[in-house]
Design goal:
By secondary structure, the chain is mainly α. It is built from 11 helices and no strands.
Length: 179
């Protein structure tokens, strides 16, 4: 950051803050502060590379602090920017996390709508990882309304043909089973 600041390279400063926010770990107030600084810097440059990721990172920091409404706004901003950039993976991840925020905040209807949208995106892009996570979220939504049979059907679909390295890498598939 300092090197970019010395030569007044705004885009470099924005990139540095964005990356620093991503690397700040679970210090969510710090992540929030850094991501906000990055977004503000991006406003002053024509190069918006990583702006979508900065909104996503800010959304995640707010989500982790239970600031659901503001988190959703930032995830929606990241979704629009990823879509504009034709970044299918970013679009899918933004929809995935937004459906999770709605689920956690108790808005099951919106969570379900977005999880189905995310499942369609994942299927359209042949993104098996995202497909499995969206199926897990849909299963969790059915579990939340105590439709355990349907929930298990979705969990089964999410875990079907899973490879050992996928299970070891991403235990999010098993979150509902642990709960």
């Amino acid at each position: 950051y300092e090197a970019a600041e010395r030569i007044n390279y705004i885009h470099g400063m924005a990139e540095a803050k964005s990356l620093e926010a991503e690397m700040a770990g679970e210090d969510f107030p710090k992540v929030e502060k850094l991501a906000r600084e990055a977004i503000k810097l991006y406003e002053n440059t024509a190069n918006k590379k990583r702006l979508a990721k900065s909104y996503y990172t800010l959304g995640y920091a707010l989500y982790a602090q239970s600031m659901f409404a503001e988190a959703i706004k930032n995830f929606e901003a990241s979704y629009k920017l990823y879509k504009k950039d034709n970044d299918a993976k970013g679009v899918g991840q933004s929809v995935l996390i937004t459906s999770g925020v709605y689920e956690e905040s108790g808005n099951y209807e919106m969570a379900f709508v977005l999880a189905r949208k995310g499942l369609d995106i994942a299927s359209g892009n042949n993104d098996d990882w995202l497909r499995r996570l969206e199926l897990t979220i849909i299963g969790t939504l059915f579990r939340d309304i105590e439709d355990y049979s349907t929930a298990l059907t979705y969990y089964h679909q999410a875990l079907q043909n899973i490879r050992p390295e996928e299970y070891a890498y991403n235990t999010a598939y098993m979150r509902p089973v642990r709960e």
